[in-house]
Amino acid sequence: MNATTPLHGDDTAAILDKARSGIRISPDEALILALSAPLHDLCAAAMDVRLARHGKDAYYVHNVHINFTNVCVNACRFCAFSKTKGAPGARTLSVDEIVAELAGRGEARIREIHVVGGLNPELGLEYYVAMLRGIAKQCPKAGIKAFTAVEVAHLADVRGVSEFEILATLKDAGLMMLPGGGAEVFSPALRQKLCPEKISGERWLQIHATAHGMGLPTNATMLFGHIENWSDRVAHLSALRDLQDLTAGFTCFIPLAYQPGNNVLGARGPDGLTVLRVMALSRLFLDNIPHLKAYWVMLGIKTAQMALWAGADDFDGTIIEERIGHDAGADSPKGLTLADLRHAIEAAGMIPVERTPDFQPIR
Ligand code: V47
Ligand code: SF4
């Protein structure tokens, strides 16, 4: 069957029943659902799968984001965060400044430090190691989720060593897991238009496979709502599911809603319905990745609450203070208090469960 052939409701209902009962759906079936399933039916099936796995639990984490440099040699067309060296607004923090940023922020209770930055060739591996050690000392209870596969590749290339070697050094210095950034959309044709200087999707997947092989869990993302279509999205999810079958190292999938401000891509960003369809389809298709994040920074609080009814089981965290989405015009708050987070989850009819970066519940 061609995915663009008009379908009877019975066809999509049969695929949804299959997914609901725990039978894996194929990429073709996912595409049929994406294009033809009524929104309510898609979300209801995703909700059933979510309830079977997680009940009404919705995870959140007491976390902090650190963007240690916005200087980047890449110029991804969707990115409003990166600056060239010496440009107005370019900033790079020293290790002491990073540690000072954490001081006085209730560091005894922080559970996750999320650290990502641009590709700044002036920062050597020693800087990254010192940063990890400094953060670990300042926030002993927190797990450090740091450096995207794109940054790992950059460090390996600058130093002329393998990615395994970079990851081993970082792990030894206290790295707990990798965040999911840099995946964007794997289609090579789209990457050429979106982020031509960035590593290929294949290399992104290979670095995550290497991390998984070393016992470092990772997250995965997909940037959506720009110039990609449903076939591109399903192909992306499919590549993640295939790797996960081999390694079981992905913890959480995060669909990142494209923010259209202050960047040269000139796309619009996804509407609310597309957000819910992407969430629901991700929940139904990614049967082997345990968690699905409603990232309130890019979705806004209200849409993130709705996403909890479309399959998502994680709300991310307090964050203070996010830059990548906000530089691109995100109109969500820059951070939330723990009370705000719990309130948002409870108001959505779910049960807030505090977690560690690797989703161990803190009861
Ligand atoms: O890789 C850049 C994206 C990512 C824009 O692993 C944009 O827990 C939307 O990956 N609109 C970094 N997105 C953020 C990220 C992330 C965030 C929160 C949690 C986790 C996790 C990972 O931000 C980049 C890129 O895909 N990005 N510009 C933009 N205009
Ligand atoms: Fe650099 Fe990352 Fe922005 Fe691309 S998305 S320009 S790699 S900071």
From TrEMBL:
Keyword Iron-sulfur assigned: yes
Protein name per Swiss-Prot or TrEMBL: CofH family radical SAM protein
Alphabetic keyword roster: 4Fe-4S, Iron, Iron-sulfur, Metal-binding, S-adenosyl-L-methionine
Domain Radical SAM core: 58-292
Residues at which S-adenosyl-L-methionine binds: F78, E184
Binding positions for [4Fe-4S] cluster per the UniProt entry: C72, C76, C79
Top-level taxonomy: Bacteria, Pseudomonadati, Thermodesulfobacteriota, Desulfovibrionia, Desulfovibrionales
GO MF entry, a single one: 4 iron, 4 sulfur cluster binding
Organism of derivation: Solidesulfovibrio aerotolerans
Superkingdom of the organism of origin: Bacteria
Cofactor(s) the protein needs: [4Fe-4S] cluster
